[in-house]
């Protein structure tokens, strides 16, 4: 993070520079994407003033404090800035917080199956080729038939690639 310190009516010493750097770096515990900080220190008569402006991607935070001592003014401004950043971080965390899955997708009883039409079809023994011709003649996309050789009930259906699929029944668990 780049920290720019400006002093008005006073001289910037290494001790003040280090103290300001320590206080501003403390803000990084709330947000780690701080781009830069501008600190302005000034004195008028007996009032010391510290202004800290922190630039984060998309946001700017400003804290201004006055005190009788320069270090006290820096502390007050730093505390104000920390409170702002903490509140911002909590708001952002609450905004992106997702609800538990139980609230988003509540358990509901499955909808009852609604049968609208019941047809009785006489099944006569036929080969899969004959069943495919019968299915096409009737205009259906599947056809249930009794296989001529085995006597089992099978289902033939039209696939998306215009070929046919054949469902052969088996016992469950095999």
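^ structure tokens above, recovered residues below v
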């Amino acid at each position: 993070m780049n920290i720019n310190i400006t002093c008005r009516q006073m001289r910037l010493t290494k001790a003040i520079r280090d103290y300001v750097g320590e206080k501003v770096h403390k803000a990084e515990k709330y947000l780690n994407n701080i781009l830069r900080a501008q600190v302005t220190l000034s004195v008028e008569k007996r009032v010391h003033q510290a202004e800290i402006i922190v630039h984060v991607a998309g946001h700017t935070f400003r804290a201004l404090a006055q005190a009788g001592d320069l270090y006290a003014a820096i502390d007050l401004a730093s505390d104000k800035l920390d409170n702002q950043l903490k509140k911002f971080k909590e708001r952002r965390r609450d905004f992106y917080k997702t609800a538990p899955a139980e609230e988003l997708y509540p358990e509901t009883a499955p909808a009852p199956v609604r049968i609208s039409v019941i047809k009785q079809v006489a099944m006569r023994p036929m080969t899969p080729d004959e069943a495919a011709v019968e299915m096409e003649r009737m205009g259906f996309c599947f056809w249930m038939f009794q296989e001529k050789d085995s006597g089992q009930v099978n289902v033939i259906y039209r696939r998306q690639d215009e070929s046919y699929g054949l469902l052969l029944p088996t016992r469950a668990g095999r």
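The domain at 125-167 is CATH 3.30.505.50 (SHC Adaptor Protein).
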